[in-house]
Give the backbone structure.
Amino acid sequence: MNKAVASDANDQGKERESRSSLLQQSELEALAVSAILEHRRLIAADEAVYEEWTRATSDLSVSGAVLKSLQDEYVARQRKSEAKQEELSEIIDVLGYVPQVPLDGGE
C-alpha cells in the first residue's frame, strides 16, 4: 500500500472516530448493535455464497464462467465484510465495550 492510500485511509478512520465520539453513549450502543447485526447478516450471506461456490466446484456440469462468477461474488463479499468489520471495530473502540446483542437479533 502506498503512503497516500494509507494516509487517506487513516484520515477516514479518524474522521469516523471523531463523528462517533460526538454521539451519546446510548446512540453509540444502538449503532454498535446495528453494526453487529448487519455483520452477522453479511457473514451468513457470505457463507451461503461460499457453499454454493464449493458445491459448484465439485459439479463437473458447471461451466468455468459460472465458477468464476461465484468466486468473484465471494471475493467481493469478503471485501465488503472486511470493511464492515473495520467500521464495527471503530464503533466498539469508541464505545469502549461490546454491547449485548441477542443471538436472533430480536429483543
Q: What stands out?
A: The mean pLDDT is 83. The first helix runs from residue 3 to 21. The radius of gyration is 18 Å. Residues 53 and 70 are 6 Å apart (CA to CA).
